[in-house]
Amino acid sequence: MNNFKLSTLACLVTSAVFSVSAVANSVTDIDTTVVKAKRPNYKTNTTNTAFKMDVSQLETPRSVNTIDRKLLDDLQATSLAKALENDASTVKTHESDGHENFYIRGFELTTNEGYLRNGEQKYSLIQEPVEMYELIEILKGGSGLLYGQSEAGGLINMITKTPEDRQRTMISQDIGSDNFYRSVVDTTGAATDKLRYRFIASKQTKENWRHYPDGKQPKTDRDLFAVMLDYDISDDTMLALTYDHKTQQGHNDSGAHFDENGNIVGDRETILDMPWSDNEKKEDSYGIKLSHEINDDWSLSASYHYLDMANSARTSSVSLSKDSATTGNYKFGTGKRDNSYEVHTASVDVNGNFYTGSIDHNILIGANLVNHVYHRNSNWGGKKIEVSINPTKPTPGYDPSVMAPASGNDYRRQTYGLYVQDLMTFNDQWQLLAGLRLDHYSKERSSNDKKDGKGHDKIYNNVIPNASLLFHPNQDSTIYATYS
């Protein structure tokens, strides 16, 4: 997709006219002025996600790729998928309901354990609005050990923008192919000496490059409204409050379909799902964080985040016959879902610096929890309806009477973790990182299993050690060995 950003450029041009004769008859000595400039790049010097402490990239014995705000702007990234094109180990795959799904190092990221927001677990079903984020980090492999249960390929951490002291407002309009439009308003500043704010609102729409048999192209709309407030309780203590509301209205596109002989039904641009097969997602996110500088060497932070999300859809599950590619005829089953999710996350971290003899210690002690509840209510199965890709034939409408009876269930799981980590610096060349995490994971029986007396709760306890030895042959390079 090609995007174009509209902007206004004002230039002030000045000129000086010199008399030729005056220049010829006089000589003036002018001091030499040397102008130096540093070419900007996309390298970030520090990272605090992999270890939850401020350390330089050279002190990070993990594979972490950081995509900063400058790169996001230069890429004109309007989606997480566009931003992650800059990471060679990450690949996007197609999802029928329009949400972005990724693989890292060949391993799929699930919506449950694959994503973080400001270092806390985040459930992800809506296309992420990158206009809300300052940084996107890809923690590969075991780089996310501190966060407990995660995918083998790694994690994606999205760090939100924060309020600024300086008054600033940015308004932008993006236009692209497939009738893509995105409008963004981002304003920040100081309301008082102690209170800072940031408001971000955006509206985005885009048509599918594929179409229904009658030639019509469905579209996906996504809206965002976010509020961030920072309040200085004292010189050493700050309270941060966040709220954001996201909505996404889209369509279901299960992709191209092939018969048993590998022949495509229609062509690669034809959507076999019914035009009424749509979906709507809503997400409300609430967050609070307290940061306190105990003294020059020790700090404390505590945060809580609540996510309330709903996912509803009308579906038309496609099923083919042996000759569907030849005749253009196939069947679909009408379905419906109304699912909701409640996710509570919290963490407490203590960071400190101290010496034991000549050894400098940068230590982290912390705990976190995740409480996840999934409510499922859906209708699947029922009568199959025959339809054709021939646009002259009628397209059946949405008929709930042909669906199977509704079924519902509730699923609950909790994760609790304790962790400690110490980065020991012996001298300018040698460092040792040692860490340990204790995990408790419990998954309750579903509500239906409890009612029927089936199944049992699952409980897992894990001990996850890790250690890294770092050698710095010079100030610009690091060689390290890691065990976990």
From TrEMBL:
GO molecular function terms noted in the UniProt entry: siderophore uptake transmembrane transporter activity
One cellular component term from this protein's GO annotations in UniProt: cell outer membrane
PROSITE patterns: TONB_DEPENDENT_REC_3 (PS52016)
Signal peptide: 1-24
Keyword presence, Cytoplasm: no
Family of the protein in this entry: Belongs to the TonB-dependent receptor family.
Protein name: Outer membrane heme receptor
Organism: Moritella viscosa
Source lineage: Bacteria, Pseudomonadati, Pseudomonadota, Gammaproteobacteria, Alteromonadales
